[in-house]
From TrEMBL:
Main location: membrane
GO cellular component: cell outer membrane
Entries under InterPro entries matching the protein: AMIN_dom, Beta-barrel_TonB, Beta-barrel_TonB_sf, Plug_dom, Plug_dom_sf, TonB-dep_rcpt-like
A molecular function (GO) term: siderophore uptake transmembrane transporter activity
Coiled-coil intervals: none
Entry similarity comment: Belongs to the TonB-dependent receptor family.
Name of this protein: TonB-dependent receptor
Length: 868
């Protein structure tokens, strides 16, 4: 009774933490994504009133009691309950029988499965003649207790990569099977690639996992997630040093970005989807390279799934960190920035909470020459982040989780990019000009995600996950002054672009095991999206007189439209043998959209006709993994991606009085991708090598015009490349690692079988990274990491780009020292103070020359973090 009262009081104290963000959200329904991977193996149930724990049991993980139903045949023993208890080595399976009766068992190994046969026994459970648990412990994928014959029970425990060890323990309460997973089974588990938990070695795809420890380490260099991932993920473009994913393609195509499985990509937006959560709120990031037929939604390049922090198993735990940052070249108060983080996590009975709050003030940026860098979207920015999660274990097999994430960025600077560069011959590096203005609508972005997930481990033998989510994105950009520039007269002279995007969706997925070797995942996805990109046009006379931007009128950059997406999918996983794993599946997508008649801010005056249309298609995937040894495997896969282009931009390109129906600009894109790879884990060495080739009859690529603006091209397209990783731990104190990314691409815009190079905005040059890490003294680790971005001339030579890509190299230093109860962290970005232009700046030419921002010079960050 005291424990129940404590649980209720604890909940009353927690609920107010969630009240404010839920009121703030327009729709507070949703849940941690399908891919949060929450598992009952890490939770402990509430003891029932009157229940007495057995002395040798550490913790009950799962309990099912049984009441007698039909009486069994004489001579058989009733098994009235099945219980799982956690142990230091693994877990115990306890079969409960009437007092004074004993069970016998014989065990054997079949592939990855441990099987125990128990004769002269019958299951008498409320659920019938079967008990099932998915992922009951690390290294274990499945557990079943089944009545296979009228008087024989069979226990099957399937390891992820190898059969577990087991020992039969005599017990007066029945029979105990003590299970210890094989060490090789305790490998990294990935959820994004298959929408279920699956060991990395079982996947016929290239997948990169960035764990919490690495995110924490790299955030000592940058709080900008696009830059953090650009340094670590093979196949992804290099860091942009902006708040945009423009140029941050995955294998030369666009990636679908998720937070706990919730899509963050508006169909038409400004490519800021990775700046929608603070890195301190991230548990890990899973990157699936190549198109996905499981998710749909534009994942033609792959998937970046951001999985948020999970609750601790402790009753209550707090973490606090304080950090400061400054530019070592200009070392001034203007270059000063700071970072504050607070985390609260805990579990009491069936309830667990996670709260992460962050405040980041970036300060001004300076290049290696000590010159101020104009506003890039990540300097002179104040960001506030809040993640709140509440989980309830309804019973040992049911869980409900509610989460809410809000991330707000506001830009406040007295500088702009000086337009004087237009009057200087040749390409110039952007320079800052002091130009303070007042905004009616201050530049910034606010992104909210609310998420509700319900999971049941066993409904008629299947694991069921249902999700409802809501996303709301609002963005206003800095002003643009076009006066004196060679633009058409109908263009507005002084304006800000903005975005208003909302999405409401639901997902249902069901995992049905047919045997220990065959599983079927099937389900349905639905989403409804509203998108508009208004242009806020200001009065030039008021601006010249008061330096105040007042949005006197608005016109659409892209019109308001609605988009519905329905997806049906089925995916079969078949472990043909311990060495051969097969998978394959289908997805059906239907997109329907509607837009009214509209005018445009950046097009010749005239009403454009709206209308409605729908597109549908089927995408397919199949893959095979062959394990030469438990440490080495090869994999091959074929996968398709089906998606719509950016409808807003496509609507803007439709000619006046033309119908949106039948326009190639609005046609969906279907990508076929082939991948072949090898990977291995040999104790102190891990390596992988993969090659890919993808093609689409109607690609979606960009071409950069001589004036610096871009145009969408729909033409046959192909992309191909190689990716490699190598990690080595020669001793317990040393770690070395390297990644290599090389990819190319071209399209046939004239349909004459003459393929020209894709823009370097879409296909980045060679990217090579290397790091060496050493535990110099106990509790003191140091790391050097190098990033090389190569040259690329192909698109310039083919007259697709008006610029060549010039190579550059950066070197960073990271250090961490256990100090007292916490950790002191030091990060120095661009250690050698190299002056360079990031790739995302090199492509800015012509009318966009003011966006050719230099890279940051040598910058230092110092942080102290403590948990209590």
């Amino acid at each position: 009774m005291k424990q129940q009262l404590s649980s209720y009081l604890w909940l009353v104290g927690v609920v107010p933490v969630f009240a404010m963000p839920l009121i703030y959200a327009e729709v507070a329904i949703a849940a941690p994504a399908l891919t949060t991977g929450s598992s009952k193996a890490s939770t402990l149930p509430i003891p029932r009133l009157g229940e007495v724990a057995r002395p040798h049991t550490r913790a009950d993980l799962l309990t099912q009691d049984a009441a007698p139903v039909d009486r069994p045949a004489p001579g058989t023993i009733e098994v009235r309950g099945v219980r799982l208890n956690q142990t230091e080595q693994g877990f115990e399976i306890v079969l409960e029988v009437p007092s004074g009766q004993a069970l016998q068992a014989q065990t054997r190994i079949e592939g990855n499965a441990l099987i125990a046969d128990i004769p002269n026994a019958v299951l008498v459970l409320p659920e019938g003649q079967e008990f099932r648990s998915q992922k009951p412990a690390p290294g274990i994928s499945n557990l079943t207790v089944t009545q296979v014959e009228p008087t024989r029970i069979q226990i099957t425990v399937t390891g992820t990569t190898a059969a577990p060890f087991a020992e039969i323990v005599p017990d007066a309460a029945g029979l105990i099977l003590s299970v210890e997973p094989d060490d090789e089974s305790e490998e990294e588990v990935v959820v994004t690639a298959t929408r279920t938990e699956e060991p990395l070695s079982n996947l016929p795809r290239s997948v990169t996992v960035i764990p919490r420890e690495q995110i924490q380490q790299q955030s000592a260099l940058t709080n900008n997630l696009p830059d953090l991932l650009g340094k670590l993920v093979p196949g992804l473009g290099p860091p942009t040093q902006r708040n945009l994913t423009r140029g941050l393609t995955l294998r030369g195509r666009q990636a679908l970005i998720l937070i706990d499985g919730v899509p963050q990509n508006p169909n038409s937006g400004f490519q800021t989807e990775l700046n929608t959560i603070d890195p301190s709120a991230i548990e890990r990031v899973e990157v699936v390279r190549g198109p996905s037929a499981l998710y749909g939604r534009g994942a033609t390049g792959g998937i970046i799934n951001i999985i948020t922090r999970r609750a601790t198993t402790q009753r209550l735990e707090s973490q606090v960190s304080v950090g400061v940052r400054n530019d070592l070249g200009a070392f001034s108060g203007e270059g000063f920035g700071y970072n504050l983080q607070y985390g609260l996590s805990g579990k009491e009975g069936p309830i667990d909470i996670t709260v992460r709050a962050s405040l980041n003030e970036s300060g001004s940026f300076f290049d290696a020459n000590g010159d101020r860098i104009p506003p890039t979207g990540i300097n002179d920015v104040t960001s506030l982040g809040l993640l709140a999660k509440l989980g309830i274990d309804i019973d040992p097999q049911q869980r409900l989780q509610l989460s809410y994430n809000i991330y707000d960025e506001s830009f406040d600077t007295a500088f702009r990019s000086d337009p004087i560069v237009f009057s200087i011959p040749g390409l110039q590096t952007a320079r800052a000009q002091k130009f303070p203005v007042q905004y009616d609508q201050k530049p910034g972005q606010t992104n909210q995600v609310a998420n509700l997930t319900y999971t049941h481990e066993n409904i008629f033998g299947s694991q069921v996950t249902a999700q409802v989510f809501f996303r709301d994105t609002n963005l206003v950009q800095s002003f643009t002054d076009l006066r004196g520039r060679p633009f058409p007269a109908f263009f507005p002279a002084l304006w800000q672009t903005s975005l208003d995007s909302k999405e409401l969706g639901a997902r249902l997925q069901i995992q049905t095991p047919f045997s220990t070797a065959v599983n079927l995942l099937w389900g349905v996805d639905y989403s409804y999206e509203e998108n508009s990109r208004p242009v806020l046009i200001s009065d030039t006379s008021v601006f010249d007189r008061t330096r105040t931007l007042t949005a006197s009128r608005t016109r659409p950059q892209t019109p308001f439209y609605t988009l519905n997406n329905l997806g049906l999918f089925a995916q079969l996983q078949w472990n043909l043998s311990p060495q051969v794993l097969l998978s394959g599946g289908l997805r059906y997508d239907n997109f329907s959209y509607e837009v009214g008649d509209y005018e445009l801010a950046f097009a010749a005056p005239g009403i454009r006709r709206g209308g409605s249309a729908d597109n549908s298609g089927i995408s397919f995937n199949t893959g095979i993994v062959y394990k030469f040894t438990p440490q080495t495997s090869i994999f091959a896969s074929f996968a398709q991606g089906f998606s719509l282009p950016d409808l807003g931009s496509a609507f803007s390109s439709v000619a006046p009085r033309a119908s949106i129906r039948g326009s190639d600009l609005l046609e969906p894109q279907k990508v076929d991708s082939f991948e072949l790879g090898i990977r291995g884990n040999w104790g102190t060495v891990q390596a992988s090598l993969a090659g890919f080739y993808s093609t689409s009859d109607l690609g979606a690529s960009v071409r950069i015009r001589p004036d610096g603006t871009t145009e969408l091209q729909r033409a046959p397209q192909r992309n191909y490349g190689l990716e490699a990783t190598l990690d080595w731990q020669p001793t317990t104190k040393w770690r070395l690692g390297s990644t290599l990314t090389w990819n190319e691409g071209e399209n046939d815009t004239n349909n004459d079988d003459e393929f020209l190079a894709l823009s370097s905005l879409q296909v980045p040059p060679l990217k090579l990274s290397f790091h060496v890490e050493n535990e110099t003294l106990p509790n003191w680790r140091n790391r050097l990491q190098l990033l090389l971005v190569g040259d690329r001339d192909r698109a310039f030579d083919d007259r697709v780009d008006p610029f060549r890509v010039e190579n550059y190299t950066t070197l960073d230093f990271l250090s961490s020292l256990k100090l007292g109860q916490g950790t002191l962290e030091l990060g120095i970005e661009n250690l050698l103070n190299n002056q360079y232009l990031p790739l995302s700046s090199q492509e800015r030419t012509g009318l966009l020359e003011t966006l050719r921002f230099a890279g940051r010079g040598r910058t230092i960050f110092l942080r102290y973090a403590i948990a209590f």
